């Protein structure tokens, strides 16, 4: 199963090298100056729309040339192509009758980023019949070469070119390391030179994959004498975290890359490092870059060779391409990000995810104050895209980061209100603030509350009579009360035996919690 999108390549009747781009609508504003003052630069892409299924297989009345060539991959008779074309052309103030013949130019199947089904794209090409027709101000004619120049000569606040142009047209013009990857592998290359391969990993729902990010520029320059870089290489990969069942795929990827390989790890979580051992076996000369707090948590079974410690602001040179390390604590205390300077793409690890919000790991130095600071640091960089390790590339970085900040601040206000209204224990606060959330998520919510309370204390917003020390001491009682609450919500207790069973389970959980709370480090 897949969702389908129709993208239209509308050619200029006066200049066959040019096609029409549409200025994309940004996400809705927040209605608060605190966030709306941060604006992403304009994004231009091919006009597109969702492609709906036909209710019956009647002929759409529009003949699509070359459709048979792609018949093994997609059957266009199942879709309402005419409705799709009407919608797309309406966006640019044209009608179907304004265009001559239509050709199925390309069909692209998306890699499994998740959550949900892949989004596959049908690219239809047509040419305007009348050279005197004008397009409105939200459109512009551009060539593939001019789009490529925009993509490769990037400045932080310049206009941007979207992924449909790149995947549909630009990537065909340039040499790419992605073409050397195993042909069965699904990947996405956007922006040019930034290759994403989602690989199955031990991540948490709703995701099932971790994005392996690959940089392997074709034009490798020798700058080995330049000492200003923390590391030099001909290729770089980020977060090889695939499950052991997919290590053979990872092995094939590594075999396609140059031997002078840099491995960059954003943090230590299993779904980001489980593939390190296979890289070490395939390429013992590979260089590992990680924060020292991350390396302390990576086992010798994953990586037993040496590594280079990074802490932020270092530059890495990959085939003549500069990438800058950004210290990005919050998710963990050793979390780092990576800025690809040439495309202004920011790889953010688990600071953001493709859907929903990112969890902070309280057991590994997760810190809400630092998370806020890192978010603002990312906003000030004005990246063109955000590449998270779970989910799709985000095309509106400032909007996404502001959304994260707004949601966390809103949650924090709810926590503060609960405390001001008399909530003193962890369970009382969680039950108040997360009352509408499934009880199975309350354990994670408790960690979130502790981090928010620490941030409120840092801001000096807590009531004077409230004690953080007392709150932290209620962790064990929270586990007991949560266990009873969770079991009651899942299994209505109607008999004494089940009540006894519930209490026994709760007692075991509390015993384990107490043991680990007093166990010496």
UniProtKB/TrEMBL annotation:
Pfam family, one: Lactamase_B
Domain (Metallo-beta-lactamase): residue spans on this chain: 224-390
Family annotation (InterPro entries): LACTB2_WH, Metallo-B-lactamas, RibonucZ/Hydroxyglut_hydro, Sec-metab_biosynth-thioest, WH-like_DNA-bd_sf
Listed CDD domains: metallo-hydrolase-like_MBL-fold (cd06262)
Keyword annotations: Membrane, Transmembrane, Transmembrane helix
GO cellular component annotations of the record: plastid
Record's protein name: Uncharacterized protein LOC111281951 isoform X1
Organism: Durio zibethinus
Organism lineage string: Eukaryota, Viridiplantae, Streptophyta, Embryophyta, Tracheophyta
């Amino acid at each position: 199963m897949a969702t389908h999108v129709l993208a239209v390549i509308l050619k200029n009747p006066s200049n066959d090298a040019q096609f029409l781009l549409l200025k994309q609508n940004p996400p809705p504003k927040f209605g608060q100056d605190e966030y709306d003052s941060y604006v992403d630069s304009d994004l231009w892409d091919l006009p597109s729309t969702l492609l709906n299924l036909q209710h019956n297989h009647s002929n759409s009345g529009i003949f699509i040339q070359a459709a048979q060539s792609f018949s093994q991959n997609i059957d266009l008779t199942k879709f309402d192509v005419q409705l799709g074309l009407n919608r797309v052309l309406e966006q640019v103030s044209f009608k179907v009758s304004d265009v001559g013949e239509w050709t199925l130019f390309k069909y692209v199947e998306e890699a499994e980023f998740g959550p949900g089904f892949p989004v596959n794209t049908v690219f239809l090409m047509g040419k305007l019949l009348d050279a005197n027709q004008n397009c409105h101000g939200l459109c512009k004619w551009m060539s593939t070469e001019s789009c490529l120049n925009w993509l490769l000569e990037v400045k932080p606040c310049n206009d941007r070119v979207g992924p449909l142009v790149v995947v549909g047209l630009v990537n065909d013009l340039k040499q790419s390391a992605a073409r050397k990857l195993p042909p069965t592998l699904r990947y996405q290359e956007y922006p040019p030179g930034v290759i994403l391969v989602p690989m199955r990993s031990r991540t948490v729902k709703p995701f099932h994959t971790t994005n392996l990010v690959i940089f392997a520029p074709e034009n490798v320059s020798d700058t080995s004498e330049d000492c200003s870089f923390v590391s030099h290489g001909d290729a770089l990969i980020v977060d090889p975290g695939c499950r052991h069942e997919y290590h053979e795929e990872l092995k094939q990827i590594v075999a396609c890359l140059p031997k002078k390989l840099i491995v960059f790890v954003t943090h230590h979580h299993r779904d980001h490092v489980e593939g390190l051992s296979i890289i070490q076996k395939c390429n013992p000369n590979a260089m590992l870059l990680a924060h020292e707090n991350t390396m302390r948590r990576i086992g010798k079974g994953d990586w037993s060779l040496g590594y280079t410690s990074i802490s932020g602001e270092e530059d890495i040179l990959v085939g003549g391409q500069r990438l800058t390390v950004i210290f990005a604590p919050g998710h963990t205390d050793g979390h780092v990000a990576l800025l690809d300077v040439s495309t202004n793409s920011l790889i953010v690890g688990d600071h953001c995810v493709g859907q929903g919000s990112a969890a902070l790991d309280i057991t590994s130095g997760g810190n809400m104050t630092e998370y806020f600071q890192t978010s603002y640091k990312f906003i000030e960089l004005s990246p063109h895209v955000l590449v998270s390790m779970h989910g799709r590339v985000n095309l509106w970085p400032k909007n996404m980061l502001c959304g994260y900040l707004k949601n966390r601040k809103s949650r924090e206000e709810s926590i503060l209100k609960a405390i001001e209204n008399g909530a003193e224990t962890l369970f009382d606060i969680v039950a108040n603030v997360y009352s509408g959330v499934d009880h199975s998520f309350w354990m994670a919510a408790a960690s979130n509350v502790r981090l928010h309370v620490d941030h409120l204390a840092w801001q000096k917003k807590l009531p004077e009579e409230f004690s953080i020390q007392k709150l932290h001491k209620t962790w064990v009682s929270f586990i007991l009360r949560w266990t009873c609450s969770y079991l009651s919500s899942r299994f209505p207790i109607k008999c004494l035996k089940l009540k006894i069973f519930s209490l026994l389970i709760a007692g075991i959980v509390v015993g384990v919690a107490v043991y680990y709370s007093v166990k010496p480090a």
